[in-house]
Design a protein that fits this description.
The complex is a heterotrimer of chains A (445), B (246) and C (219). Chain A is α+β, with helices and mostly antiparallel strands and 445 residues long. Chain A is 36% helix and 23% strand. The longest helix of chain A is centred in the middle third of the chain and has 34 residues. The two termini of chain A are 47 Å apart. Classes of the chains: A alpha+beta (445), B alpha+beta (246), C alpha+beta (219). Chain A: It is found in: Cytoplasm; Nucleus, Nucleolus.
């Protein structure tokens, strides 16, 4: 779906407000919106809300082979997904340019600045290392996805616990969470991005732009910083022209903002750690507020299922006995078998014997459909096969189908037999589910 | 790489330069006759080739036509033989797409696009040999190519990298210094007005050192501008001499 | 066969996202699914249907890129929603339903269907009836466990999910994994049907609560 274009009135209004040093939502120029961090039940899962912008991050770990040129280091993959949920303009599938840019900034912020120690992710040098993957999904886009995503990424990485691994000589054992407590990742520092929006060719700047401010801005600058005042990443682009003094001023503002944000993240992490230690139930299900009008909660309820069992047996009785599959086969010649009546033999079979090695496979092909649906006939068929072709022991697995002229008609006349078998096996009305049911039966055979 | 000093005790770097010296820049304009503009630049061992086509009618993507200005389309690719190990994906991977986008944003800011409504300008840049400062070589080559094509720009765009290793800022980082993990800043700017068009930084750099590095990068861009400008003037006077002679 | 089965606690929150036309967060025990609906809106020319709205379901797993299993889930959900949404009221338009798994602790498919239904309600998309879905698992001994969590699902021999309509309690969708006898199937069906009435009444309560300030609800 296309994004609704912004009207000129709205654009002019926002710009004139900014020139007056006012913002549409009443904030000051360097104020952030309300920041909320919530953790999920799983380790490494968190939702960050920056105003109305919502971002979900999940960290997971897998053991893989390391890269050839870095045999003692694990790897960190950061994947930012602009979910179609966040905005009608985002399409699933290939990421857009802005998506790629944000992804690259996040990667540089966390990976290239060595926020997480990759050497500690090594299990067996050259063979097994941990590959940590952070998936960040944008749930709602109300401006400044970059900051929310970076906060979510680093918070989730700090929250994550990987399974403990012990190496004894050649053996590597991965302990489950019940055996040994999972181990946290070694996070050296927490880099957080701060986005600045520039207006009027760099004359006015705002921190944490909302969506409408983002649509009106000339260009943006992203500064990634950590608590120690180290700049981890800096990106200025968007076709705007800046002077050196503005860049330095931004980095100073960023210092202050980053300190506030990291303090908040630390508080949230500590609170969650305490709650987990106290044994309280954590997770998103718990954190749904119950006093809002838009939320509704219900305690575990019990369902009376006595009637269900009776009802079920009633239905089965009413359905009547299942038609036993027609299983008397008439062997006309080696390689052709007839089930049912009224078929015109189009296999051009004479009474004389046809000596061919593929005959047994033809049998499996023609009777394949029936065999798939119900398991009984195949068992009965086997003795028949062994009588005629004892040497073809491997023929059951072969999928060779030799088609003759009358083959198509032969297959179509088998349909009525197949449908009568279908009824008792499933009562779905859905076609895809029906086929799935049949395939499942075949798989279990 | 233990024991390999980026700066020796006498203050010389691995390739014998001092900390604020640029690598040797060689440039040639008008390399291809078919393209509207083309240029080839060598910065030390980094070699980049740029071609410009346009302004011409928008062929693909008629939906993107802008009624009041030209659309700039950039494509960045690295030749498979440009790096030490063969590069399996010359374009289409995230890094190349990001570079293409940055180039496009850089040139959209600098080219006077209002003069060519409803048309398209294509800039194709190819790295033939990568030895650090890939983006800078691309931008410099593309600037020359755009000048060669005769497309009006607000000013030259010159780009340069500056890094910070062992407490001293270094200018024009080569590949060896890049892979040592030191922070480096890439700056693309318009030299006369000292306006920064693009700023990109990798790895960790303390905020206090930021100003020094930025100043050094600015100086580097101005030096690059001096070289490019002289080259352009030489090229133009040569062509002028050829034309008036015949 | 146990006569008293317990459904885990469920909760739902509506209208929590500002961009989508309708959104809902549905939790069943610890399983949480966030659903968002955009529409009816603009449709791509290639997907346009001249007399109906085009329904599109996008199912996003939490980790990794979507693959075949996700496409299958999308298909099941799409068929379910197409049976209840009055698509003929909005020809040549698209209704997009996006589901994001926030936490998967068992009965994922039924949680998704329920979340999608609440989100469609929140977006005011016209529907014939509400859809309530329940999952049940069959243990090795043949016992039915309603609304299983992930541990129970792993140990079961079959997992069946049924979606019912709220007016006549007919089956809209049935999706099963594993093998079971016809008798077990019928039993699970009846058991889930009973349970779905709870979920339908829960939907009702949620909407009544939401509208309580605006309308006087007749008891």
């Amino acid at each position: 779906m296309k994004e609704v274009p912004m009207s000129t009135c709205e654009r002019e209004f926002i710009l004139s407000a900014i020139r007056d040093r006012k913002r549409i939502d009443g904030r000051q120029t360097y104020d952030y919106r309300r920041l909320k961090v919530a953790f999920g039940m799983e380790r490494g899962c968190c939702i960050v809300e920056l105003g109305d912008t919502k971002v979900l991050a999940q960290v997971s770990g897998k053991i893989e082979q390391p890269k050839k040129n870095r045999p003692t280091e694990g790897s960190i993959i950061i994947n930012l997904e602009l979910s179609p949920m966040a905005s009608p303009a985002f399409e699933p599938g290939r990421p857009t340019e802005s998506g790629i840019e944000m992804n690259r900034i996040l990667e540089r912020n966390i990976r290239d600045s060595r926020a997480v120690d990759t050497e500690s992710l090594c299990i067996v040098a050259g063979e097994k290392v941990w590959c940590i993957r952070a998936d960040i999904h944008v749930l709602n886009d109300e401006g400044n996805i970059m900051d929310a995503a970076s906060i979510a990424a680093i918070t989730a990485l700090s929250h994550f616990r990987r399974p403990d691994v012990s190496v004894m000589g050649e053996e590597v054992t991965v302990h489950s969470p019940e055996d040994r407590d999972p181990v946290p990742l070694s996070v050296h520092h927490m880099p957080v991005c701060v986005t600045f929006a520039f207006f009027d060719q760099g004359e006015f700047l705002l921190v944490d732009p909302t969506r409408s401010e983002e649509r009106v801005m000339n260009g943006r600058m992203v500064v990634g910083m950590n608590m120690h005042r180290e700049i981890c990443t800096l990106m200025m682009s968007g076709g705007m022209l800046l002077v050196k003094e503005q860049v330095l001023r931004c980095s100073q503002i960023a210092t202050v903002k980053v300190a506030e944000i990291i303090e908040l993240i630390q508080k949230a992490l500590d609170k969650d750690a305490q709650a987990r230690q106290a044994g309280e139930k954590c997770g998103f299900a718990e954190s749904v507020p119950s006093n809002k009008i838009t939320t509704n909660k219900k305690e575990p309820t019990s369902v009376d299922t006595t009637a269900a069992a009776q009802h079920a047996s009633q239905v089965i009785q009413e359905a009547g006995p299942v038609d036993k599959p027609v299983s008397n086969m008439l062997v006309q010649a080696p390689g052709t078998v007839q089930i049912g009546e009224g078929l015109v033999n189009t296999w051009q079979v004479d009474d004389e014997d046809m000596e061919s090695e593929e005959d047994s496979t033809k049998k499996t092909a023609t009777n394949g459909r029936e065999a798939v649906a119900v398991s009984k006939p195949t068992e009965r068929k086997r003795p028949v096969k062994t009588v005629s072709h004892a040497e073809d022991s491997g023929s059951e697995e072969e999928e060779k189908v030799v088609l003759y002229q009358g083959d198509v008609e032969m297959k179509s006349t088998e349909e009525p037999d197949a449908t009568t078998l279908k009824q008792p096996t499933s009562s779905n009305s859905d076609k895809p589910a029906k086929k799935k049911g049949k395939k499942k039966k075949a798989a279990q055979k | 790489m233990a024991g390999l000093e980026i700066i020796s005790d006498q203050g010389y770097r691995i390739d014998g330069r001092r900390s604020s010296e640029l690598r040797k820049v060689c440039a040639r304009m008008g390399v291809f006759t078919q393209a509207d503009g083309s240029a080839y630049i060598e910065q030390g061992n980094t070699k980049a080739l740029a071609t410009v086509y346009g302004p011409h009618e928008m062929r693909k993507g008629r939906g993107k036509i802008q009624h009041d200005r030209a659309v700039v389309n950039c494509q960045f690719s690295m030749a498979t033989f440009s790096t030490g190990e063969r590069k399996s994906r010359p374009k289409g991977d995230r890094r190349s797409q990001e570079m293409s986008m940055h180039l496009r944003q850089t040139f959209e800011a600098v080219i006077v696009t209002e003069l060519f409504p409803r048309s398209q300008i294509d800039i194709y840049v190819q790295i033939l040999q990568a030895d650090g400062g890939n983006y800078c070589a691309c931008v410099n080559a593309a600037t020359l190519a755009v000048i060669d094509a005769g497309i009006p720009m607000k000013d030259y765009v010159c780009a340069c990298t500056a890094g910070f290793i062992q407490d001293s800022p270094l200018l024009d980082i080569s590949y060896v210094e890049e892979s040592a993990g030191a922070p480096f800043l890439t700056v693309a700017m318009m030299p006369k007005s000292e306006q920064i068009v693009l700023l990109e930084m990798n790895s960790r750099l303390h905020a206090d050192n930021m100003e020094k590095v930025l100043d050094l990068a600015t100086q580097g861009c101005k030096d690059v501008f001096a070289v490019l400008d002289r080259h352009v003037r030489d090229h133009v006077s040569e062509s002028h001499a050829l034309m008036t002679a015949s | 066969m146990a006569t008293e089965q317990t459904l885990r606690s469920f909760g739902c929150e509506q209208n929590l996202l500002s961009r989508p036309d309708g959104s809902a967060n549905f939790t069943q025990g610890d399983t949480t699914v966030l659903a968002a609906v955009y529409g009816p809106g603009e449709v791509k020319m290639s997907e346009e249907i001249i007399d109906k709205a085009t329904l599109r379901v996008i199912f996003k797993p939490k980790v990794g890129l979507p693959g075949c299993a996700e496409k299958f889930q999308e298909r099941v959900l799409r068929n379910t929603c197409e049976s209840v949404v009055l698509a003929t009221l909005h020809p040549r338009s698209a209704i997009n339903i996006i589901l994001q798994i926030i936490q998967d602790s068992g009965s994922l498919l039924s949680c998704c269907v329920n979340a999608a239904c609440v989100a469609l309600m929140d977006a005011a998309v016209p529907m014939k009836c509400l859809v309530s879905a329940v999952t049940c698992a069959l243990t090795e001994e043949g016992q039915i466990v309603l609304d299983p969590d992930s541990k129970q699902e792993k140990e079961s021999s079959a997992v069946l999910t049924f979606a019912f309509d709220s007016r006549e309690n007919n089956v809209i969708t049935c999706s099963t994994k594993g093998c079971y006898t016809p008798e077990q199937y019928q039993e699970s069906l009846s058991a889930c049907r009973e349970a779905s009435k709870n979920i339908s009444s829960f939907f009702r309560q949620a909407v009544e609560k939401r509208m309580s300030k605006e309308l006087k609800v007749k008891t």
